[in-house]
Amino acid sequence: MIATLGAGAALVLGVRWLPRPSGAARRASAASHESAFESHPLLRIDASGATTILVNKTEMGQGVWTSLPLILAEELDADWALVTIARAPSGPRYGKAATGGSDSVDSSWLPLRRAGATARVMLLTAAARRWGVDPTSCATRRGAVIHTPSGRRATYGELVGDASRLAVPDGRTVPLKPATEYHLLGTAIPRRDLEVKVHGAATFGIDVRPPGVLFACVERCPYFGGSLRSVDDAAARRLQGVRGTVQLGAVTAPLTRLPARVAVFANSTWAALQGRRALTIAWDPGAARGFSTDALSAACRASVDAEAQVAFRAGHPPLVIEPGARTVEAVYEVPFLAHATMEPMNATADVRDGRATIWAPTQAPDGIIDAVAARLGIPTDAVDVHVTFAGGGFGRRFYADFGVEAAELSAAAGAPVKVTWTREDDIQHDLYRPHRVARLRAVLDDRGLPTSWHTRLIGASWAEYWDPDTTRPWQHDWEGAQPPYAVRNVLIDFVALPSPVPIGAWRAVNNGENGFFMEVFVDELAHRARIDPIAYRLALLGDRPRARRVLEQVRDVSGWSRSAAGRGRGVGLGVAYYDYGGEQGGTQVAMVAEVTADDANVRVERIVCVIDCGLPVSPDTVRAQVEGSVAWAVGATLFGDLTVTGGRAVEGNFDRYRVLRMSEMPAVDVHIMPSTESPSGVGEPAVPPTAPAIVNAVFAATGRRIRRLPLSRTLGPASARPRS
Amino acid sequence: MPSITLHINDHPHAVDVAPDTPLLWVLRDTVGLTGTKYGCGMGLCGACTVHLDGEARRACQILVSSIGSARITTIEGLAADRKHPVIRAWLAEQVPQCGYCQPGQIMQAAALLAGTPHPTRQQIDEAMNGNICRCGTYQRIRRAIARAAAETA
Ligand code: FES
Ligand code: FES
Asked: Is the pLDDT of residue A2 over 80?
């Protein structure tokens, strides 16, 4: 039985972890060998021709397991049937592992193409030398080099020895294929991770089980910022299968906030859960006792005229836009949102001999390495992270808390430990999309188009939570708040209010709420000007051809003009546009939502989405990501609402924290703009326009302008029910 | 502890577990069949769906002591038949994203089709409404069920 560690356990554990100084750096790289060709850390071709491509990003549903290897394989002219895909180990040698911001394809595009093209050139050169022919008379096709005049052919596998002896050329100098020669990219290639997933054979973090592992469940202080007063674990320790308990203090480490906790170790997850239930704990709520989301909402609304920090300024915006005949003003509000990834947070750790091995479904293994090293007081190169498949990420798994906690518990237990969070742990100890209030104001010209624009954001700042020493609002606070529209004078400012609720990156990060504020406001301006909302946006997007094209396309394919006549009688169409990353090189999204609505109910019937993401590397994956983004955001728009009373989260499971279900899923129709430009992200860009498109459609259907999410809050509890 | 014999995927398994242990944790921690997933522990999400004598049930809500001689089928058992029409339809429609909910979705869909070979859209939505997918694969699930139904015509 493991002894219960006393109060201040965090420090006690610190002592137990003192690492032995270890001067031995890990060996830098694998030895090169004749039987395989490894011109790049992510590529290996064996003499048999078997080609292994490693993926250095987390597969969490977005399809990188296929799309990234596809990019390399295309330039390599690989035989896709001979390609095997595996997860790259952690470490800088394999490139940036952090997975987020919809940038995996985008940021890997050039490096992976160069890796493939470099290998191809080396294999082609090896063949030409072997045959004593001019390399320019040789070509590559499906895993082989061909001497075009003679038809002589050598497979890549036959060339690995010769190619390995060549110097690796500078990837920046090798020629890359023109898009017209692609035969893999842009085609319908089945995803490579789906077979194991439909057979129940994929290993997620929650499935990891090293030998001798103890199962842990953790009771976490339910009060944000609270602390542990006392714990009685006698009953827990008497239970069959329970092996011990430990107290853990609150932790602040890179990308990590953990509350005060009491953990139970056991022989099985169920025994750990039972042991946890048998704990008697007194928590001290601390300063958060009086905190509630209702109070925060009121405080935000009372602070719209408080002193604000300037976040962004363009032109000569008046710092205060006075209310007047040509001024339009609206105040919006969005709630805290939990991620509720389908696989709850979990991690497994084995800490011993001054080293830590972590298995985790993480978006940021490097973040876990840094945070675990900081927490245990060991060097970063003494921490290994094995990244598993992740059952959804959506930004939640960018944080290191679950990995750090597993390491703490393994160190305390002196054994490998697997920590499984319950759904309640997962929802109530999340890093939420921030609650925000926003006041938007615009001054209009004679035609009703804005000449000055002021967005004032009010709420808890990322800076306060993650970087209390800074005096400026973080980019995250106002990202996506800058209108892409041609408005002469723009001011974005921020009133920061204190809140004890952890905030973090949620799918599309703060583009989500800032896109909502902006695109509903633009719709209000269009209606006031009596201009069709699509025509109104087009009038403000004069010099942005990609933006214009997605809007024109969505108008044409959604039946926008045709159904204009039927609007206002319970059926409505609403539009939203979102610029994710810029007219140059970013993703452009235009969306039309169709709803049926009355005073108490809303049903989202149909979403038409047009997306320009540059070259669609894997078009079906682009479609899947848009469908998923829409489902994600429709659920949040209808009923996503994490509330706090008495300093603790109210909702804990899917009964009260409602997410979208099958019967509420609209038909989603995705149109991908043809393009051969560099690809840009698709995992998030369709999230921000979804809520405003729905809210604008509700206005079209009912004449009612909703400015606060979720709709279930505004329309009452009967809303958003499936039609019976 | 008395040993309980379970009939899982056509094999008997003797397990020594507390009688109040939910089948979900017996499958995952004791038998080592991890295809059945934990998502909520309250019968709210469907990630743990298995078949008990062919019927779709939430393994997190079934006490191991209550199973008796009922036959248990998990995703591993269903998938042993690589040609299972639901699994083939799931691949043809490229349904999964993260995949975490999918064993439960597939088990639910297979039970639906066993009882209702040609479900209407409304029957599909009703039968699948208890299975949450946070990746939002619902539209493809609808299509895959329709495809599997058509193929077994
Ligand atoms: S885990 Fe059983 S229904 Fe959610
Ligand atoms: S595929 Fe990810 S939760 Fe369904």
From this structure: no
Of chain B, the percentage scoring pLDDT greater than 90 comes to 94
Cβ of A394 within 8 Å of Cβ of B42? The answer is no
The values of phi and psi at residue B125, to 5°, are -60, -40
Confidence (pTM): 0.94
Is some CB atom of chain A closer than 8 A to the CB atom of B39? yes
Q: Is the shortest distance between the CB of B45 and ligand 1 below 6 Å?
A: yes
CATH 1.10.150.120: does it fit domain B85-151? yes
**Chain A touched by B23 (CB under 8 Å):** no
Q: How far is the CA of B135 from the centre of ligand 2 (A)?
A: 4
B38–chain A Cβ distance below 8 A for any pair: yes
At A661-711, the pLDDT tens digits run: 999 999 999 999 999 999 999 999 999 999 999 999 999 999 999 999 999
Q: Are A632 and A202 in contact (CB under 8 A)?
A: no
| CA distance linking residue A679 with residue B91, whole number of Å | 26
Helix ranges (H only) for A316-398 are: 365-376
| Residues of chain A neighbouring B38 (CB-CB closer than 8 A) | 206, 269, 344, 420
Cis preceding linkage at A710, omega within 30: yes
**AA letter at A714:** T
Spell out which residues of chain A touch residue B22, defining contact as CB-CB under 8 Å.
270
Could you please state the CATH topology (level 3) that the domain comprising A294-324+432-715 is classified under.
Aldehyde Oxidoreductase; domain 4 (3.30.365)
Rounded Cα distance between A67 and B144, Å, is: 23
Per-residue pLDDT, A4: 42
Nearest to A440 by CA among A522, A376, A509, A495: A522
Q: Flag if A200 and B141 touch (Cβ within 8 Å).
A: no
Q: What's the CATH number for A4-198?
A: 3.30.365.10
Q: B40: Cβ below 6 Å to ligand 1? A: yes
Would the CB atoms of A206 and B34 count as touching at under 8 Å?
Answer: yes
Which part of chain A has CATH 3.30.365.10? Answer: 4-198, 205-286+345-420, 294-324+432-715
Contact A200 B40 (CB under 8 A): no
The residue among B137, B56, B69 whose CA lies nearest residue A631 is B137
Closest ligand, as measured to the CA of B135: 2
Average pLDDT on A185-210 reads 97
Distance from CA of A280 to the nearest CA of B (A): 21
Judge: domain B4-78, CATH 1.10.10.10.
Answer: no
CA distances to A292, A623, A682, B151 from A620, rounded to whole Å, are: 43, 5, 11, 22
- Is the CATH number 3.30.365.10 carried by domain A205-286+345-420? yes
- Subunit contact B134:A207, Cβ cutoff 8 A: no
Long-range CB pairs of B54-63, under 8 A, 24+ apart, other chains included: B54/B111, B54/B114, B55/B111, B56/B107, B56/B108, B56/B110, B56/B111, B56/B112, B59/B22, B59/B23, B59/B24, B59/B27, B60/B22, B60/B23, B60/B24, B61/B22, B62/B22, B62/B23, B62/B24, B63/B19, B63/B20, B63/B21, B63/B22, B63/B23
Ligand 2 centroid, distance to A342 Cα (angstroms)? 6
Query: Would you state the pLDDT for residue A566?
Result: 52
Q: What residue spans define the domains of chain B? A: 4-78, 85-151
A 412-431 residues with CB below 8 A of B? 420, 422-423
3-state SS assignment for residue A597: strand
Instruction: Give the separation between CA A523 and CA A532, rounded to whole angstroms.
Output: 9
* Residue A263, C-beta contacts closer than 8 angstroms, at least 6 positions apart: A216, A217, A218, A219, A245, A246, A247, A248, A409, A412, A419
Model pLDDT for residues A620-634, shown as the tens digit of each residue: 999 999 999 999 999
Residues near A222 by Cβ (< 8 Å), separated by ≥ 6? A283, A428, A648, A649
CA A492 to chain centre: 25
The CA radius of gyration of chain B, in Å to the nearest whole number, is 15
